[in-house]
Design brief:
Largest sheet: 10 strands, mixed
Oligomer: single chain
Radius of gyration: 56 Å
Distance between the termini: 170 Å
Shape: rod-shaped
Strand content: 35-45%
CATH topology of the largest domain: Immunoglobulin-like
Number of domains: 4
Length: 555
């Protein structure tokens, strides 16, 4: 029977940890409070610290004799030498004692919780349920002092510098994710990272403060063609579905400076000195569905190389430009002068009752020309007004006056393209006669003309217009005659084929038909000239045949 115990005399009050340089056994790994990934890695040398604390003591009876046998020991941890509460405890029910000496592994029954030794600690011991012996303070051991500068620590909760740490956590609570080293690479598969902020809700959160940049990245060689930064939503490599990408893009490199791509939506990029928006889902070559702003401040719609300040290039069969507006403004568009005056105004609809388009051209705000697709609220014909300096219409063109007929109204008409009034007529053979030919009424076919063939012919109708390069001035007709009809000059100044067979022709001579087909001659016989004269000569013909300028005036 064991002798009564009188006291427990701890032998080593400074022992707290016995480090080991070997990889832990499978049994050790299961009981270790440290993460499995950080306890051992055959690629990195690791200083492994066992999770338990060896503790030795000397036990004597009341007579001072060393005890031999089995005893029950109870251990409790405190953060104060006198006060409670207990922050850790465990009981070793059967501890072998030999000549008073015993040894236990603290933490082998009840594992030490995380952060237990963050501060001063005292250990209380009771034997066989007797009152607790005076508490013993834990002090630093040599290897614990070295842990302040751990060269190869697998886990460092408050390391100020860790060159090759597999897990480094400076938070008040430990992170359940681990850093994995693979050669020169470092990976983190779980948890979150916060830089300059705590707590974090995203995988990576950075707070650079008010004066520092959030992220600084530098890299690349002399060609500047590599990607500087790339963020993917899904997939990598060829899966470029949702991408945020930054690259240098200089020195001949084709990579853009910045690009944002959203699958099935489009992309936004800085490319070749241009800002581009496109509807393509892939980040490859740009297509025609794009908007480009170049460094020369040119805007291209549908083209990557705008030649003007605004260059719109549509595809075949599509609208190139469409402008709409609210019903109260009827799609009004305004172009102003440098002084701010409205000089061009365009409406898709003139008013609430007039649905026709309308445009006004102005001089410093004063209207000079107006175009209306509808003449008033009821007539469907178009209307063009040209106004004078007092904004009064001096020329009006009406497409439909309500009768289906158009009209031009102006005080003066000045014609500079020709000098005669013509009307188209059909001729024999339905072929037009040569310009300058004198023609007569065809008695066999009403409404037709033929070339003159005899002198003093009272059927004379006029001269074919267009000889000598003098074009018609005004053309009349009802649209029943085709464009190949003969244009007859009935009034005005034309060149006429003439002959001097009846004597030389002088300016002012009265001319009539001659015996030569289609030619005119001087009219000497006053009686025969009545009703057969075609006009007066304005130039001379001394002999032979030639063109004479004639003022057409049938008598």
């Amino acid at each position: 029977m064991m002798r009564p115990l009188r006291r427990l005399a701890p032998l080593a009050l400074l022992l707290v940890a016995v480090p080991s340089f070997a990889t832990p056994t499978p049994g050790d790994a299961e009981n270790s409070p440290f993460p499995a990934e950080s306890r051992a890695d055959d690629r990195v040398p690791v200083l492994f610290v066992a999770p338990n604390i060896p503790f030795q003591g000397l036990l004597r009876d009341t007579g001072g004799n060393p005890v031999t046998g089995t005893v029950k020991l109870h251990f409790q941890m405190y953060d104060d030498p006198i006060n409670v509460p207990v922050i850790w405890s465990e009981t070793h029910a059967t501890v072998d004692v030999d000549e008073g000496l015993f040894r236990v592994e603290l933490g082998s029954i009840t594992p030490f919780p995380a952060g237990l030794f963050n501060g001063d600690r005292w250990l209380g011991i009771s034997v066989e349920g007797e009152p607790e012996l005076p508490r013993v303070q834990f002090l630093s051991a040599p290897f614990a002092l070295q842990a302040g500068d751990a060269d190869h620590a697998a886990t460092a909760d408050f390391a100020t510098e860790a060159n090759h740490a597999l897990t480094a956590d400076v938070a008040t609570t430990s992170d359940d994710g681990d850093w994995i080293q693979n050669g020169s690479d470092l990976h983190h598969l779980n948890g979150r990272v916060g830089i300059g902020r705590i707590p974090t809700t995203g995988k990576l959160e950075i707070d650079g403060g008010s004066t520092e940049p959030w992220i600084l990245a530098q890299g690349g060689g002399s060609t500047f063609t590599q990607i500087g930064m790339r963020l993917y939503d899904t997939g990598i490599g060829a899966n470029n579905e949702n991408v945020l990408e930054f690259a240098h893009g200089g020195n001949g490199g084709a990579a853009p400076i910045a690009r944002l791509v959203s699958k099935n939506e489009g992309s936004f990029s800085l490319n070749g000195g241009s800002l581009r928006l496109e509807a393509a889902s892939a980040p490859g070559a740009f297509n025609t569905n794009q908007l480009v702003l170049t460094r020369a401040m040119r805007i291209g719609v549908g083209t990557a190389t705008p030649a003007q300040l605004l260059d719109v290039a549509g595809t075949t069969g599509t609208q190139h430009l469409r402008i709409t507006g609210p019903s109260t403004s009827w799609g009004t568009q305004v172009i102003e002068s440098t002084s701010g005056a409205t000089n061009v105004e365009v409406r898709g609809q003139f008013s609430s009752t007039n649905t026709g388009a309308w445009m006004s051209l102005r001089d410093n705000g004063s209207e000079r020309i107006s175009f209306a697709a509808r003449n008033g609220d009821t007539n469907i014909g178009g209307l063009i007004d040209v106004k004078n300096g007092s904004a009064i219409p001096t020329v009006r063109i009406v497409g439909d006056t309500g009768t289906g007929k158009g009209r031009i109204t102006t005080p003066v008409i000045e014609i500079t393209g020709g000098a005669d009034l013509v009307e188209p007529f059909p001729t024999a053979g339905d072929r037009p006669l040569e310009p300058g030919t004198v023609v007569c009424i065809d008695p066999a076919r009403p409404g037709h003309l033929e070339a003159s063939r005899r002198a003093y012919d009272r059927r004379v109708a006029g001269v074919v217009s267009g000889a000598g390069g003098l074009a018609p001035g005004i053309r009349m007709g009802d649209g029943d005659v085709n464009d190949d009809a003969t244009l007859l000059a009935m009034v005005g100044r034309v060149w006429v084929k003439c002959t001097a067979e009846n004597g030389p022709i002088a300016p002012g001579d009265l001319l009539t038909t001659s015996g030569r087909t289609g030619h005119a001659m001087r009219a000497d016989d006053t009686r025969r000239s009545a009703g057969a004269a075609l006009g007066k000569a304005m130039s001379a013909l001394d002999e032979g045949e030639g063109l004479v300028m004639v003022l057409v005036n049938l008598q």
